[in-house]
Design goal:
The chain is an alpha+beta fold and 109 residues long. The protein has one domain: Aspartate Aminotransferase, domain 1. The chain contains 4 helices and 6 strands, in the order αββββαββαα. A hairpin with a 2-residue loop joins strand 2 and strand 3. The longest helix has 16 residues. The protein is globular and about 30 Å long.
Length: 109
């Protein structure tokens, strides 16, 4: 998969001031980690966001957001937001905020 540089810039803007963020190539795109734990990713088919198991219900009700699928397996706790969803500044910020809240609850790696 190809990278989506525009989406990467949007996510970088959201996370620029967050302490403990690192980023690297992953999942055929670019991924961000918080204290060593996966937080979200960007690739040409959308933004991948880690909300945590049982925390993604609200997001899946939003247009342009679907469960993340890896191969044939649903990745519970993760969602994929298409360009309609991640292009909405308020929704993207909400996704990132919820992801940060969840990942901050995990032990650092």
């Amino acid at each position: 998969m190809a990278r989506d540089k525009g989406l990467e810039e949007l996510v970088n803007d959201e996370l620029r001031s967050v302490h403990g963020i690192t980023d690297k190539a992953m999942f055929g795109g670019w991924a961000w980690l918080l204290n060593g734990n996966l937080l979200c990713g960007a690739r040409d088919d959308g933004m991948l966001v880690r909300l945590g198991k049982d925390n993604e219900t609200w997001a899946l009700k939003m247009p342009g957001i679907v469960p993340m699928i890896s191969g044939t397996r649903r990745m519970h706790g993760w969602v994929r937001a298409d360009s309609q969803a991640f292009g909405d500044d308020a929704l993207r910020q909400k996704l990132v905020t919820y992801a940060l809240d969840f990942v901050r609850s995990l032990p650092a790696k």
